[in-house]
Amino acid sequence: MSNRFEDRLTRLRAELAARGLNAFYVSGEPNVAYFTGKKGNDCALYVTQNDAVIITDFRYREMAQSLTWLEYYEIGIGRSVFDFINSRFEKKIGIEKDRIRLSLALSFKEKCPSKEFVPEEDIVLALREVKDEYEIEATKAACSIAMLAFDHMCEFLRPGLTEREAAAELEYFMRKNGAEELSFDTILITGAKTSLPHGVPGDDVIKKGDFVTMDYGCKVGGYCSDETRTVAIGQPSQEMIDVYNIVLEAQQNACDKIHAGLTGRECDAFARDVIEKAGYGEYFGHSLGHGTGLEIHESPRYAQTNNEPIKAGTIVSIEPGIYLPGKFGVRIEDLALVTETGIINFVTAPKELIIL
Question: ω before 201 within 30° of 0 (cis)?
């Protein structure tokens, strides 16, 4: 009986055949993880039509040997990856153009002169774009932890806390409640810093009348959640309320209208048009969203530059924002599964403005 990893190898082999490759060397950590279920650090895979070999060293021997759908080659003193490849009969070997280290690519050419190494766009990332049932359920589980964390932070946040203190509490809560690790460095910022889309938590103190933006996520089963909520600490100004409601309208419009078959550009426009009509177009400078999975940024992209149709089965963020320099910013973000008829939103945390 095949497992999901063998099914993924079958899909990769079909792609290799279509490209005329005899083998493929997988070195990017998330790509190795896609075929192993492990983190993939200090490991590589060598995949042909007939076998698949995990290449690593003594530190990961027991882990590698537990992966029964793979053969195992251990490197160490007198046994290098170059020895392994030179021992194989395959001549035309694909390598990951966007992930392989330049030094390793150059060493392959020098130490394996009888082989042809073909730089390829990220074949595995393309395979990872449409999620299977395991990936969907793992993402949903990570989103559930993140939503619990939001509820907790609505009780925890108060004037006088620093951004750093609040971010630490948020991260600790997620880990305590089942998160394996963070999806990315937590963004928890307040006051004028909320105009920074990727602001870094520091010693700024949360004050009454300010916004707090929390953009954060965690991993379960290796898969990322991603959620952003902006809340007010005490009564915000009317301008803050107005801008918040514009972002909310834009985000909800996108959630209501996105479905498979639309281009990334069309999806982006569902939110961007609302913000531009309200007169804030110049203050929404990033794309509407991105795919997630083993990495926090994957294909597809909901961007003005993406004219490719969005596929059913992709998991994407939907995150418009307005950022007024030196004043404040607002971002609202959900994570959703795209279907033929719409989206299934994994984030059900409240989106209406919460005043704490």
Answer: no
